[in-house]
Every structure is written in structure tokens, then in C-alpha cells.
């Protein structure tokens, strides 16, 4: 674009742009233009007469308006937000944390503010577009042209109807990225009623390995909340809580006080934001976190620092956890709260002293000693804080268990100042579609999923079940190999798999292969490049209904997304008229509804019947069709918006409907609202506060493990692994061998397969050709990868330690740089067995020698004019996913981003 | 717009101006069959631009649609963003202070945007000037000199404060990126008409201010 700044010539040239030498006149003839416009009626295209003219304040007057509630989904903190909408121009002016939130109050983080740049980004997709070039490929211009929503929905319905007619509904697929809790409609119910098992979420490129640790120690496949206001020692593993990770608003706000009252230590190969402000930095050799965890557990047991009430005690009080000595289990009396600490010691910890760990992890033995001791000295008010870094590795599952088990040793599990979960929430499940699933669909649903989860080599043991979790990135291979079947029709929404999956090149091929692909997005991503239909999505923070939740400070809050630009968000006409700047719709509700109508036109009405029957307004009982009866497309659009509103009301009904919560519903406690309007206007609901220790069996509670207690011996994992082995008619050792783990059952030369244990890093690439470990980390301004087209992300890049504004540098230790002959600013190539990218060298002491660190998120060749060097053609910066190979921590299904990625660095 | 202009119409010049702004506004919308048919039917005498050049440049409808998308809609290229905000406030923004000011102008006048676009979309701004001129013509017909001068002022101010500030920039972008002749011609015609019209307005307002000529003398007749 050739845009010059023409903003400075207003004052002087006010009257002279075209040579006018006289002053301006001030008087008004309000309304006359509107009257002329009204008389022209349909002769106008862009403008329409309004009922009244005038009344507009002087543009110089300060903005006024209301703070309206919504939610920021710029990371998984999902903070409750308030949006200042100018009452005269209907423009979003500011956003902040919700003042009523007991988690974060008005505090937010910089990501929330970036959302306004996204909302008002001229590169947004503004109307439905269809591909006109049937050829697909990275180098092929798709030649998109605008079409109407009606045509677009009809095209998509045609494709789905054809699969149904041919009785091959399993060839339909939905991929999800970020979502709100209205997600079942598009993600689950739509494919279920059509008859496809292929709904593939992004979860395994998020952090499934991180859930593995708590799952196989205390039975929770979930993220934790950390009780930082009460804690006395925080030991963060690859977590950067004041920058990324979860509930950043709360942790950032509390971090100053935390440093006053507690010691903070960070295990991380690079100096992260949190590490740079902490008391201790343990710059671990990538992939060796598990060694540190085992050694710390060794120290805690050796020195008798464990929590007696949670773990137990030797019958005679004499500590027999002596290095290199086995302990007779009979001498130890386990507490009611946990089991297996002796087995853990005997099988794993007895010889894993700090010197042993120091050799592997590159962290001094005395620092390991000190951190372990001080951590345990904090009593139960200590947190072993597990992030994705140490565990999204080929053998990460066991490190996840070891790191989380430290919380068990010191009794901080569910305890004051320790690791908590979320108190019970009063949301309701959306109505289920089972009655609307016909025979064709039933048969389709019996097929195996396209990500091949549950196969011998993909245990994905979510919740203890073989194939219970997703293997997101492997779906590309499933599509390419047509194994288990071909995919013919894909709906992708709120994701960009062609960019966000490791070795993303494979997704480009997979997407190019799918005959019909509709994507629902705010921005034209790399994924959209391969689509046949691009459907413009509402922005979650400002333009739609939805619900997410935050967890922190002992609470969980239920946070509403509301269409803040409409005066009356409950009025579908107002939302369609004023709630969106462009012709956009909501992925999870409006689009499935319109699709249901169109499918019904084509003779398949199960989906529409389900929506019509099960989603009346729970306040009034009015059905969608009673509210808007017409069958023209406008009426359908209004019904679709009413459907969105009804869905969110159904989901949150217990919180705002006294009759409902006092009926059969199992009310968990928490705030009570008396009407939908009261709840909607506030936009946030709180649980009761977390009750410490309530899940401890000694307090009458129960853990979610098979044994009901906290397990140091991996009993639940044993059951899950044996279940998976049985399913494939083999043994656990074969499973672990195929899945690249070192643990074995009853093999003295191998780690015990069930207890939390150390495994050597796997190494993706031979160390001679690829001598450096690649340390990928996320950008503080990342917004889950969706903010690359905001200028602020680039301008303020240096909020990430070591980064430079408007650059995408690779951070290299000066010692390594000297050996490579590299200087600051030198152009380099990063090469791995998976691929290569170009970057610029930044010499920085904050990475340990032998590693290079690079912030994730750049390298877009699409997504917008700011994100890409040349939109649709040339990348800006380098995408880490081009060099991170597609491999997995197979027990959890998680993709590998960290620890094992090996690269070579060369000067260009 | 009023298509019944005749050479005996005393306000033909003004009607032509109104019609021209409206026609240009239409040309920035998606090139549908109907719109192209409308363009084909425009009487050259009723507009103040070389409409035959535009007509002759239409060519293949699909090529036009693709080019229109690439220039003004996206999704992968937005070679000529159609929003004032992008040119006068910030390259990466819509709904800026400029948009707000435009919207305020519309509301003061009693109109509002009727398309799913920000108020400062070029088609809306062109149509707004057309409405201001049409209102001026009504005042002329009613003999309300004061109102005529008011609407001349309003036109001048809107061109000065808004459309005239960025028309050359968007036209440059169109000339650089358009693959079809039609959008090349549209860029030239839009820029030269809007800039020329601003200049003529200034001259007329100067004439009204500095001479004893009345509105009728300045605006009447059919000089172009």
C-alpha cells in the first residue's frame, strides 16, 4: 500500500484543501439529508435514512459508555472481562478484567488489550468467500470471491448431504481449536447426528502431557490452580506464569507479594520472564527435568522432609530412606491418603542423588539440594508447578508424574498454599442428541477415528482409558494415508492446523487433499488458504454468546461472552443489526443452525429437529420457530441468533433460575442469581471457595485414582497400560517399546514402568548433525497464536526476555556463537530433520550453551498484512513448527515441542 | 438516482454531480450482474465522468469479481482497503476517530450505514456526498438560498475532512494492484472527479463569498 500520513494537515488546511478561502459556516439543517435519503428509498445502497437526525455530541468530547461483560480467550486463563463500549458510536474503546472477579478483579494482561486490534483489523474476513480455483496447493492462488451466507451454507449442506446419501458419513470431519462451552453443538452433536466419529480437537498440541502427571498420581486429568497467596515456596517447571500458562492476570498481580512471602525457583533452559524475577533459576539441560525431580524426591526422603500426615511414617520413626539402600515395605506405615512411597524409593529414587542428577541436568548438585530442601521446608505450603516444557517430550509422561508427585511428598495436594483444582460449578450440560441419531449415523460412528488414537502405538491414556485422548497432529497422517478412511468434507473452526501443529508442512498436504473444506475463522490463515469456503467468524470477546471459566485464588468463575455491541443482546435483531461490524457469524451456534435448516431442505432434518425441539428459550418456553416463523433466509438468521442465546441460557440455567436449581439439579453451591437478565448483565458467577484437604481420605474425601488415594506407585497407570496392552493382545513392555519409552515391567536394567521415573531424553535427530537443542517457547503477546496480525505484538516483542522489537531472533549463548563465528544480527538458518527456517542470531546469556531459544508464533505467510511479509506469499520470520518434527509423548497423546528437538545452526 | 435529466434543466450540473457520486459509490460494491447492467444503462449525459470508459472496461464478470475481492474484500490480499481510517489514522485499524467522525456526520444528517461495513467505507462516503448534493438540489428547487449554501458547505467540508483526504491514496493502491482495466479506470475517474469537484466547490464558494453573485448565478445554467 502506498499510504502517506495525511493526518498532520488538518488544522492549517482546514479551509484550503481545494483552495477555499472563506471560513466555514456552522448552521445545521438537521434531517433534510435524511428526508432526501428516505425519499430515495431503494435507490440507496450504502446508507439509509434514520428516524431522527442530530443529537451527536462534539467529537472532541470524552467517550462515555457502559462497561459490558464478556470473556477474553486470548489464552487459557479465560479471564472474565469488561468492555467499554462508547454509547454513541458503538465503538469498543477499552477492555479490562472484570471488576467483580474474585480471581483477578480489574487486572488483566497485555493480551486482553490486543483483542481490540483484532476486532478492528481491516484484514479480518468480512464476508463468506468461496474458492474459484479448484486446484489446491501452497503455491496456488485460491482465487476467492465473495458469496452470500445463504449460498455458502447451501454449498456446505450439499456436500454433507451427499456423504449421507452415499452412507459414508465417517468421511466428514470437524477440527476444533479454541472453543467456548457451547462447543458440543458444532464439535460433538453435529458430527454425531451426521454420523462421523471424526471430531478432532487441538488438545494434544495444547498440553495433554501436563495432565498426565496429576492423572496418574491423584486421578485428575486436568489443569491445576496454584494457591500462590498462601504459598511459601514455588518451584516452577517449564511454566512461566507471569507471562504465559494459565491465570496470568491473577499470578502477575500476586507475584510481587509472592516474592515477599515465598521463595520462587524456576526450572527452565532459558531465562523466562518468571525466571528473570525469581530467587533461583535452574537452567536445566533440555529433556533432563525428570532427573532433577527424581533427585529432589531423593533428598526429601533421604532427609526425612516428607509430610507424615499425607505420606506416612516408619513404624519405629527411624528413617530408612538411606541412599542406595532398599526399604522393607513392612517397616513403613502408609497414611490413609497415599500409597507406594516405599516402592517409589526402591524402584527409582534410592540411587538418584543430586550428584547423579547434576551430571545429567547440568545444574549444580548443591543447588538441587538447596531447592529440594527449601521446597520441603515450606511444609505443605509448597508448589511443584508443572508446565508444558518438561513433559511435552517423547518420554514426558513419566517426568510429569515425578514432578507432580513432589506435591504428594510434601502434602501440598489440595492443601493451603499448594496445588488445587476447581470447586464444583453450576453449569448444565446442553441437551443431548442421542434420539436424533439414525441408523446411517450409528454405523458411521462405529468407525475408528482419523487420528488413530488407541492403536498400539498411540495409547493416549486420558482418564485411564486406552485411546481416551486425542492425538491431534497424527490426524494429518490419517488424512494423507486415508487410514482408517478417506476424509471428504472438513469443517475447521477457530484453529489453524496448517500452522500450529509441529511439522506443519504435513497439514498443508493433508488439507490440499481434502475435496471440500469449510473453515470458520476471523482471519485468513494458512489453513484458509486450502479451504473451499471461508466463513467469517465473530470475535469471541465482543461479538457473540459463549461461556468459559477461570480458576484461581480458590475459586472458579463462570464467564459469559456477550455480544457487547448490541444494546439488547437478547434481541436477535439487535445483535444482527448492531452487534457486528461485518457480515460475520458464530461458529459454534449460528452456523450449525443454518446448516441444519439447509440440510432439512435437502431431506435430512434430524439436526434441525434436534435444535428446534431441544433449544427453546428456557425462560419463556418459546421455540425458535415461534419466535421467528418465516422461512426466508433472514428469518433463519434470526432463529440462528435466538438459538445462540437459548443455548447459553440453557448452559447456565442453574445459576440464574431459582426454580431450576432448587429442583432436581445437584446444586454445588455458589452465587445465586434470580433472573437471566441479572446474570447476563453481570456476566460472571463464582463457585464456593476451595475447601482445603477435602479430598484427602483422612478428611473423609477420596482421590480419583483407582485406589482412591494419592499414588506414588502408579497403580492407576498400571491398570491403564495393562488395559491398553490387553486390547492389542500384547504386554506392557511391548507397548512401551513401540512407544519409545525406557520403562519396563520387572526388568532390573530398566526403570520401573509404573512409578514416576527418569527417562533419558529421546533426541529427535542425531547429535552430530544437529548439535543444538531447540528451546521453543511462547510469546507473551501470543493470544494462542491468533495475534500475529496485530502491530503491537511485533512492536513490543521485547516483552519476551532476549527478544527484539519487530524481529524474530534466535537466541544463542555467546560462547556457542563464538564457536560458530556468529555475531549479533547475523542471518542464520536453523535446520532439523523435519525442515528449516531462516532467522537472525541474537547473542544472549539467557540460554544455556548447547541450546538455542526462539519464541513461537512468527513465520506466517498468511493471516494478514502485518503477520506475513507478503500476505499469501512470503513469511515474516520463521515458524518454529517447520523445524519441530511430528512426534509424540504417546502415553498422553501430546505432541512434542520441547526437550528432544535437535537442530543445526548455520550462518546464511 | 433521478435519470430524467434534460439539457433544459437549470440544475443539470448539480444533478449530474449527485448522480456521479452515487454511480461511483455503486462501482465500489461487488460487481454483480445487476450492477453491471445498471452501469451499461447509464445515460452518459447524466453523469460528469467518462462512463463509457468504465463500461468498455468491464470485461469478464468473474475477473471483475476476483479483482474486486482482491482490492477491497480480501481474504488474502486487501490491496486497496476501502476504509478512510486505514489512510488517515492507522494502516492496521478500522473504527478509528476518523470513522467515528464520519459516522457523526451521517447521523447529524439523518442517515446511517446500511451495509455490513464501517461508516467510512468508500462506497458509503461517495453515497453520502451524493445525498448532500441531492439535498442541495432540493433546496435549489425550493429557492432556499441559505439552505443551498449550507449544503454546498457541507459537501465541501466532507470532501475536505474526509473523502478528499484519501481518495488519491486508494486510487494509487488500485492502480498498483488492479488486474482489470475496470478498476484502473475507476481509480482514475474517481480520483479526478472527486478532486476536481472539490476544487470546483471551493471556487463556487469563493465566488459566493467574494462577489455579489447569488446562488442562482453561481449554480444555475448547464456549464460544466
Automatic annotation (TrEMBL), chain A:
It comes from Halorubrum alkaliphilum. It holds the Pfam family Molybdopterin. It comes from the Archaea. Residues 65-123 form the 4Fe-4S Mo/W bis-MGD-type domain. Keywords: 4Fe-4S, Iron, Iron-sulfur, Metal-binding, Molybdenum, Oxidoreductase, Signal. The lineage of its organism: Archaea, Methanobacteriati, Methanobacteriota, Stenosarchaea group, Halobacteria. Belongs to the prokaryotic molybdopterin-containing oxidoreductase family. Transmembrane segments: none annotated. SUPFAM superfamilies: ADC-like, Formate dehydrogenase/DMSO reductase, domains 1-3. This is Anaerobic selenocysteine-containing dehydrogenase. GO terms for molecular function: 4 iron, 4 sulfur cluster binding; metal ion binding; molybdopterin cofactor binding; oxidoreductase activity. The keyword Isomerase does not apply.
